[in-house]
Amino acid sequence: MNLDARLKELGLDANAQLRSATPHFKIREVFHSDTAEAKGIYNVPDASKLTIVLFNAERLAENVLEPLRNAFGVCKVSSWYRSEALNATIPGASATSSHMTGEAADVLFNALPGARIQEAFLWFLRPSAPKMDQVILERRGEHTVWLHLGCGSKMRGQLLLSPRGGGYFPFTGNQWQIDELMEGIG
């Protein structure tokens, strides 16, 4: 059964906006996962968790994703909600990942050059920026860079970098840290 049919069974329209304040983010985006589809993993929470996951996703979209999109243009959510089964297949994913409650999303800026991705990361340093749990500038492979955005109950205010080799390092405000991570990205 495809994602739209699963959501319909739960009484949800996959094409509906999360909230009127988030016109660019749809319910389908919260639960869609290329990895889940490829591995045949059901990536929709059961009815007992659905309400809280949607509440968290709406809060993240309204307070973080929509303002980020308004500032930088089109961004694609590549990973938002993750079921426990899906999360277990993600290399390096924490067993307590905020993705499992809808409080985190990974965002790609395919159309942005590397300098704009850096600018999007640094955007969270502004005094008027949304309060965050984590903002992580992550890189895997030669050309894949994304922002992990977490906004939930922890609210640690962490700005981290995760280079190609893995691991997480605090961003200390030094531009060279970003330059090193972004080396070779257009």
Word description of this protein:
- The structure is a single chain.
- The protein has one domain: 2-Layer Sandwich (Muramoyl-pentapeptide Carboxypeptidase, domain 2), CATH 3.30.1380.10.
- The protein contains seven helices and six strands.
- It has helices spanning 3-9, 27-31, 34-39, 47-72, 84-88, 114-122, 175-182; strands at 76-79, 104-108, 134-140, 144-150, 158-162, 169-170.
- Strands 1-2-4-3-5-6 form a six-stranded mixed β-sheet.
- The N and C termini lie far apart (39 Å).
Fold blueprint:
Blueprint: H1 3-9, H2 27-31, H3 34-39, H4 47-72, E1 76-79, H5 84-88, E2 104-108, H6 114-122, E3 134-140, E4 144-150, E5 158-162, E6 169-170, H7 175-182
Parallel strand pairs: 3-5
Antiparallel strand pairs: 1-2, 2-4, 3-4, 5-6
How many E-type strands?
A: 6
Question: Mean pLDDT, nearest integer?
Answer: 84
What is the CATH third-level topology name? Muramoyl-pentapeptide Carboxypeptidase, domain 2
In the predicted model, the low-confidence regions spanning at least 5 consecutive residues are none
CATH class type: Alpha Beta
Helix percent band: 25-40%
Which structural class should the secondary elements be placed in?
alpha+beta
Distance between the termini: 39 Å
> What sequence of helices (H) and strands (E) makes up the elements?
HHHHEHEHEEEEH
Overall number of structural domains: 1
Shape: globular
The number of distinct helices, counting runs of at least 4 residues, comes to 7
C-alpha Rg (nearest Å): 16 Å
- Which strands sit side by side, in order, in the main sheet? 1-2-4-3-5-6
Sheet with the most strands, sense and barrel status: 6 strands, mixed
**Architecture, according to CATH?**
2-Layer Sandwich
